[in-house]
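Q: Dihydroorotate dehydrogenase (quinone), please. Structure only.
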Amino acid sequence: MSAPLYSLAFRTVFSRMDPEQAHHLVTRGLRAAHRLGAGRILESLTRPEEQLAVQVLGQKFPSPFGLAAGFDKGASAVLPLGSLGFGHIEIGTVTAKAQPGNPRPRLFRLLADQALINRMGFNNDGAAAVRRRLERTRQKVQRLREAGRHAPVIGVNIGKTKIVPLEGAVEDYLTSTRTLAPLADYLVVNVSSPNTPGLRQLQEIASLRPLLRAVQTEADAAAGSHVPLLVKIAPDLADEDIDAVADLVTELGLDGVIATNTTISREGLETPAAKVSVAGAGGLSGPVLAQRSKEVLGRLRERLPEGVVVISVGGVVSAEDVAQRLELGADLVQGYTAFIYQGPMWARRINRELLKLMAQLRAKRGSV
Ligand SMILES: Cc1cc2nc3c(=O)[nH]c(=O)nc-3n(C[C@H](O)[C@H](O)[C@H](O)COP(=O)(O)O)c2cc1C
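A: Structure for Dihydroorotate dehydrogenase (quinone):
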C-alpha cells in the first residue's frame, strides 16, 4: 500500500477504529497476504539494498533499521513483518507465564502529536508458546537464507510476569531465558516498561547487577554458545543513573544497551491536556520522545567503551532521523509508533532514503 493510499485508509478507517483492533486487523491481513504468497512480491519491492547491510553483534543485519519490541509480542508475524524491509524484528516482551495484560482500552492515539500512549501490560502467550512459534520461524529463516532471500535478524525481548513478586524476578527472567535464548539472535532484558508495577525498580544497580549476571550466564549455557545480551532502559532515568547502567554494562561485559522505552512524562505535547488525561496512565511514544532518546544515546556513547552496542529507539520517523542516530553513534536504530502512522511501506521508504544519505555521509567522511 503506497503512502498516500495508507494515509487515506488511516484517516478514513483505522483512525476511527479502536487502535488495538486496528493493530490486529493489519497484522492478520499481513499474515494472510504472506500465506497467499505475497511475501515474495513484497520482498522484491522492499528488500534492503546490499549496501545497507551492517555487521553488529557478530551478525549481518540487512539494514540498520528494525522494528522495536511490542509490535509482535508473540512472534506470530516475524517473516511477514520482515518482508516489509525491516532489518531486524525484536519480538516480545515475552514473560515466563502467559498473561492477559491490562484491561482494554489500553492503547490510545494522540493524532496531533503522531504519538501513542499504551498500558498494554505485557499481554503475551508466555515463553513456552512463543518458543514453539520461534522454532518454526527459525526453520523458515534458515530456508530463506539458503535460498539467498531476505530474512530479518530476530531479537527476543523478555520481561517479568506480573504476578511474580520482585523478589522472584531473577528466577522468572531465567525461565524465559532458558526457554528462548537458544532461538534468539540477541536477547534483551526489559526493565523499563512503565506498565508492570515495580518493573522499573529493577533498573537500580543493586537489583540490575544480579539479574543481568544471572541471565548472561543462563543464556549462554542454554544456547551452548554466546547469545548477545542487551538491557533496555527508560528515558525517565536521571543522567547519573544512565551513567551507572553504562558502567554496569561495561563491568559485566554485556553486549549493549537499547535506549529508550516509552516515557511516563506528558511534557511537550500539542494534544490538549484534557484529552491526554483521558488516556490515563501508560507509556508515551512517538516524536515527542526523540529529544530525550538522543540525549540518552549521546550519553551512553560517551560513557560506554567502543564495541559495546547501542540500539537507539524513540521518536524515529524519517530516514534523516535514522541517519542522525547513526551519526550520534547508534549501531542500530528501531521504531514502532511511526509505523502505525506511516503504514506498511515505512521501512522500505526509510531504507531507500537511507541509502542515499549513507552514500552522502561516506562521501563527506571520505573528503575530510
Ligand atoms: C503499543 C506499544 C507497545 C509496546 N510494547 C513494548 C514491549 O512489550 N516491550 C518493550 O520493550 N517495548 C515496548 N514498547 C516500546 C517500544 O519498543 C519503543 O521503545 C518505544 O515505543 C519508543 O519508540 P517509538 O517512539 O518509535 O515508538 C511498546 C510501544 C508501544 C507503542
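A: Brief note, in case it's useful. The pocket of flavin mononucleotide is lined by residues 68-70, 73, 92-93, 107, 116, 118, 120, 122, 157, 190, 193, 232, 261-262, 285-286, 289, 313-316, 335-338 (CB under 6 Å).
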